[in-house]
Structures are given as C-alpha cells and as structure tokens.
Amino acid sequence: MRPSKRAADELRKVTLERAVARYAEGSCLVSFGETKVLCTASLEERGPPWLRGSGKGWVTAEYAMLPRATHERTRREVNSGKPSGRTQEIQRLIGRSLRAVTNLPAIGERQITIDCDVIQADGGTRTAAITGAWVALNDCFAWMQKRSIISVNPLRDHVAAVSCGIHQGVPVLDLEYAEDSTAETDANFVITGSGGLVEVQGTAEGKPFSEAEFLELLRLAKTGVGSLVALQKQVLAGSAA
Asked: 61 with 116: CB under 8 angstroms?
C-alpha cells in the first residue's frame, strides 16, 4: 500500500492556476499534491549575446527552493554565491524541455525567462515545475500575440513531466517524498503532448532495475503525462489569462 493510499497508476491531485502573478507576462501556480511551485514567464526584448543577428529567440529557466519549502529551513543559495549543482541541473532541464516544443525563430530576437520557485516540496518539484512552466510560457506568448509582438504562438506542442519509481518492489506513478526517499528506483520522464520523449532520468538506488521494469515505468509515465496534458488543455480552455 502506498503512503497516500493511491493506486499504483494514480497521480496526486494536480491543479494549475493561471495568472497568479500580477506583473509577469505569464504565470502559473502548479500543485502536485503538497508540492507547490510558482512559475512566472518574463519577456526580455533582447536575446542572449550568442544569438545576436540570428533572428532566433531563446527560452531559459531558473529554479529555486524557498527556505521553508522543506521540513527544515535551507539556506538561500544566493548567500553561498552560486546555485548548487542540483539547482543548475534542474533549471537546465526545465529550459531544455520548453525549448523542445518551441519554434525559437518565431519569437524573434527576444528571450523568455521562466522562474520556477518551489513554495512547498513533497517530491517531484522538477516535474511539477515543467508542467506549470509550459502554461506560464503559453500565456506569455498569448500576451505577446495580443500586443502584435508576435503573429503566431511559437509553441508547437504541449510538454509535461512526471516521476515514476519502484517502491517496495512495485512500479508506481508520481512519487511523493515518503516514497521518493525510500524508492529502489527513481525516474523522471519529460514527454510531449504527441508522445515524444524529451528526457528520461532513471536511477537505481540499490538493486538495478530490469528492462521490463523500465518499460512499465515508461507506460505509467505516458499515462500520467497524458492526464497532465489533458489538464493543461482544460485549463487553457477556461477563462483567458
């Protein structure tokens, strides 16, 4: 039995709340159970220096965890002078995931920065961040279209992410911290709305996992991401941001 009493293929309760940050061009507060991440999209009218003259834009991301997002206060990374290796890895993952479904030339020589700030952590912060960041980015592009900054939405597809793992010998979907911290295998899947794999991260914490177990984790992930993409579409079909 899972700590949350969920079925093996059951997501936590997921919510996507749009337009929660007054000044950002796009924003989304995403919740995967007790994990909550604020995602904001900010438009900059110039791209990174290495793309100058290319006619192509850029989408990048920054990730941070608030000091009391966890059970004990963690020191702000700004006070140590640089982000941790984990933080750098996660923000690069978020950026790659969004760029995989974005037509960068359609942005023009501009940059969109997605800030993902973890308000509360209970496992799966990176997957929640990617799922909410897509909504914030979409709303940023919609904001640009309304002002004739761009003529079309540069997003080519949806993208969302979910964790899977083997907990007490059973492959399960969307791990919360109680499972994540004791799982024999932990994996994260980033998948597009059309089913394309953007990134797969999988680690055995003890006993190596088999190919059959990996394929079961992939099946669970595809089911979970399908539900997340359906929720993204449902939220976008609601009131305008």
From this structure: yes
